[in-house]
Amino acid sequence: MNLLPIILIDGITFASWLFLVSAGITFIFGVLRILNVAHGSLYAIGAYLGASFVLQLATEQQRSWITIPLLLLAAVVVALTLGPLIERLFLRRAYGQDEVIALLTTFALFLILEDVVRLIWGIAPYIIDGPFRMWGRTRVAGIAFANYSFLLTAISILAGLMLWLVIHHTSFGRQVTCVISDREMANALGINVPRIDLMAFALGTFLAALGGAFTAPTMSVEPGMGVSVIVLAFAVVAIGGLGSIGGAALGCIIVGVARAAAVHLFPEIELFVIYALMVAVLLWRPQGLFGEIELRKI
Amino acid sequence: MSATATNPAGRIAAIAALAVLAALPLILSDWIVFLIALALAKGAVVLGVVLLLRAGLISFGHALYFAAGAYTVGFLANKFDIGEALVGLPLATAISAAVAATLGLLLARFRGIYFAMLSLALSMILYTALAKFYDFSGGTDGLSIRGFTLAGVAPGNPGLVQYYLILALTAVVAFVCARFVASPTGYLTQAVRYNEIRIEYLGASASHAIWSSYVLSGAISGLGGALVAYLVGHVSPDFSYWVYSGDFVFVAVLGGTGSVLAPFVGSIAFEFVKNYAVKFSPHTWQLTLGVFLLLVIYFQPQGLWQLIPHLRARQPEAPP
To answer: For residue range A141-152, what is the model confidence (pLDDT) as tens digits?
Structure first.
């Protein structure tokens, strides 16, 4: 049996899932210079809210088209509520402080959000497989693949395109680019930097929640689901170079295909491969594939 | 961090703290003694994190050494039937130091957030290895450690013996670190945080200073892990998980970087807060810890150590 097409499909599926989470991390880092440890929790909250929406509003017709806009709505709601709230109340105090303070602020948020999720949704898993099942399966190389995975890939590509369009072809995007290259100068030119920070964080949150909401149908949504995601996403953004969205995309594909190959050829080393890849890439290029070299001050 | 344990006031404070801690088992109940022993052993790991924080480096993967030390003891007890602390502890320290010396060569090239992320990745490599290779490491079940002996004697009251063992060894660790901090390499490490290029203009090597700190840091963290393994009697892959590393950095900031004794103050405070958070709000103890951490960051960013005014070490002002 030819494993190559299977490995590629599995790899791309995994990569598209991973991209939704890591694009947000790398974008937030690019603008705010903060590595958001709580990003996995935002992903989990997106999944929970998506599952709740589908269970509450589409009880009878879980297998209908209506679930797609519902999942999208969940991501928008998370982005518009939690995003600004976290940025305003917590992150804003950490700007310009020691790196360790910024990192620990988001670590504290991670601890808090993990319990908030348990308080709101309890510890019983939520299962909404209607949206997953309604798309059916396709046989490729003798193996049945869920069409929902292909939908996930399409969503991931759309999200990537949207991000690219927003950054390169909107006024907001140009202002973001300004803020990234020089905050002070951007401020002096009349750009409302705190507002850009807020919107950038909300956009990153949207991507995390989108990833969570659309992953919800493929798995049982349960506590702790954001904990392991975050380190995977860190590996991806480190490989791609922090702050680079193109890098994150390439990192996802590398990690996705490598993991799929490991799963099919040497299942024991599945996760090991991902971290080993990250170490190897950083050895070769300490700033990641597309990272910028930071100049040292004298 | 100034060398508290090598200045006269600090030395007196350290000896007084040691005397108080040594007397505690006489008056306090067993569970508190256990908690303090656990806090002191973990404090050694936190001190390892603090040594690197002095250079401005965040080791977000220090659970690696914690787990390396703990699993050394676990393997000895399970595969070789050796529960002897006089074998396990030096071996755990040596293995952790060797791992740190190797990985340090790699990590000393990295700064800032990349140092944190690479440390994280390395600790997760150990985590996945420990969790996956069941025959070798007991998988996610971990390993139990039975048959603790000290110098060939199986103590009647292992809890108490381990408390004094931990107290004595952490005192040694604190003293060694205080000497290191006050050494030329120690001062260089601190200078790395402020200006690395100037160090190199002076003819010294920033990478070497970082590497030395990293090896010492790894060694004492491995020792701390081994002590915890004997005390708790069980090791699991979670010891190497990133949340553990996060906790160590948390405690490092909680205690403060003002002295080699600060990590132990922070560690004891952390264990008690965690213990009571679990007791009084079993469903939201993580939330309580998170709020506690935010409060520390906002209102006491220099750590609990700075609350002790007379001991407050005169810190050199950071150059702009």
So the answer is: 677 777 788 888
Instruction: Write out chain A residues lying below 8 Å of B133, CB-based.
Output: 268
Residue numbers in B near A276 (CB within 8 A)? 125
- Helix boundaries (H) for chain B: 8-27, 30-53, 63-79, 85-107, 112-132, 134-137, 158-181, 184-194, 196-201, 206-232, 242-255, 262-280, 285-299
The SS3 call for residue B58 is coil
B61-100 core/surface letters (b: 16 or more CB in 10 A; e: else): bbbbbbbbbbbbbbbbbbeeebbbbeebbebbbebbbebb
Which ipTM did the prediction report? 0.85
CA distance linking residue A171 with residue A158, whole number of Å: 20
* pLDDT tens digits, one per residue of B29-71: 888 888 999 999 999 999 999 999 988 888 998 999 999 999 9
A118/B283 Cβ within 8 A = yes
Contact B215, B207 (CB under 8 A): no
Chain A: closest CA distance from residue B290 (Å): 4
Residue-by-residue DSSP string for A103-156: HHHHHHHHHHHHHHHHHHH-SS-B---HHHHTT-EEEETTEEEEHHHHHHHHHH
Distance from CA of A48 to the nearest CA of B (A): 18
| Residue contact A115–B286, C-beta within 8 A | yes
Q: Distance of alpha carbon A117 from its chain centroid, rounded?
A: 18
Q: Pairing relation of β-strands A137-140 and B234-235? A: unpaired
- In angstroms, the CA B305 to CA A162 distance is 49
Inter-chain residue contact B286 with A112, CB threshold 8 Å: yes
Neighbours of A248 (CB within 10 A): 32
Name the H helices within chain A: 4-32, 39-57, 67-89, 99-121, 130-133, 147-169, 171-181, 183-188, 193-215, 225-240, 245-265, 270-284
